[in-house]
Amino acid sequence: MLFGLFTLLMRLLEIYCWILIASCIYINLCLFGVLDSRNQIVWKIGYFLNRVTEPVLEPVRRILPSLGGVDFSPMVVLLGIQYVLQPVLVSLFRTIIYR
Questions:
Q1: 28 with 22: CB under 8 angstroms?
Q2: Beta-carbon contacts of residue 49 (< 8 Å; ≥ 6 apart)
Q3: CA distances from 73 to 35, 45, 47, 87, 97 (A)
Q4: In this predicted structure, what is the pLDDT of residue 24?
Q5: Can you tell me the distance from the alpha carbon of 28 to that of 45, in angstroms, rounded to the nearest whole number?
Q6: Is residue 99 a contact partner of residue 2, using CB atoms and an 8 Å limit?
Q7: So what's the pLDDT on residue 68?
Q8: What does the pLDDT look like over 9-37, one tens digit per residue?
Q9: CA nearest 97: which of 14, 11, 10, 1?
Q10: Which of 29, 66, 82, 98 has a 20 to 30 A CA-CA distance from 19?
């Protein structure tokens, strides 16, 4: 049961990383005019990505300094997930299992 919970948490983090990457790609495609955000399907995809990523990205944006229109908050969140959150979960799982 514990291994299943650990696997589920790791998969959810992995899916969230892919959603963050998709959101960055979506924003850039809209900014360069490749996607038309007036299209209903495109707008719904963007709305979903925004609703899922903004609760995590907004606090990071408040902490980071403004760098002239370049948003580094997705990169900070991705690095935080990959190099802080996932190793903490792995060490917590190992501590609980080998106790």
A1: no
A2: 19, 22, 23, 26
A3: 23, 20, 18, 20, 34
A4: 95
A5: 14
A6: no
A7: 85
A8: 999 999 999 999 999 999 999 999 999 98
A9: 1
A10: 66
Is 53 in a helix, a strand, or coil?
helix
Nearest to 54 by CA among 81, 74, 84, 83: 74
pLDDT tens per residue across span 36-92: 989 999 999 999 999 999 999 999 999 999 888 889 999 999 999 999 999 999 999
Instruction: Give the whole-angstrom CA distance, residue 35 versus residue 80.
Output: 30
Which pair of structure tokens corresponds to residue 50? 């925004």
Tokens representing 43 are 């707008």
Note the pTM of the prediction, 2 decimals.
0.89
14 half-sphere exposure, CB direction, 13 A CA radius: 6
Which single residue is written with the structure tokens 């902490």?
A: 63
